[in-house]
Amino acid sequence: MFLIALAGTTAAQEVHVVARGRDGLVKVPMTFTNAGPAPMACKSAIAHWYSLDLGIAAEGAKVSVELWSDPKSGEIFLLNDKEDRMPIQSLWCGLEGRSWETRAEIVLSRRAGDTPAAENLVCTQAENRMTCKAI
Fold this sequence. Notes:
By secondary structure, the chain is mainly beta. The chain has one domain (21-134): Immunoglobulin-like (Sandwich). 8% of the residues lie in helices and 47% in strands. It is built from one helix and nine strands; from the N terminus they run H-E-E-E-E-E-E-E-E-E. The chain has one helix at 2-12, and strands at 26-34, 40-46, 50-57, 62-69, 76-79, 85-95, 104-105, 119-126, 129-134.
């Protein structure tokens, strides 16, 4: 019984190391221009359950973000102020205050050995939803 308890204690002491920094990553700048009449909010889901605000743009304004790609794995990250690598699960822009319900999902290339290109997208409102297209 003691060995089982000891094994559980050892497992509980394992530490998950967060990858940090830009080494080995490639910068992928993205810009979202709001061509609609209402303010637009862009967000990203990280870690399956947490969304991160990327910015809000009034009509004619832009939201710009720096994404980072790992060409070896195909993973795409946002970096926080400590340069922790936060894996992006999804990325979208929608009407401010209802961005999830009105979202235009931004599809990111995630293939090992491939680095996504920088993109400039124009987002418009269409029947209570946003649509974003590369320009």
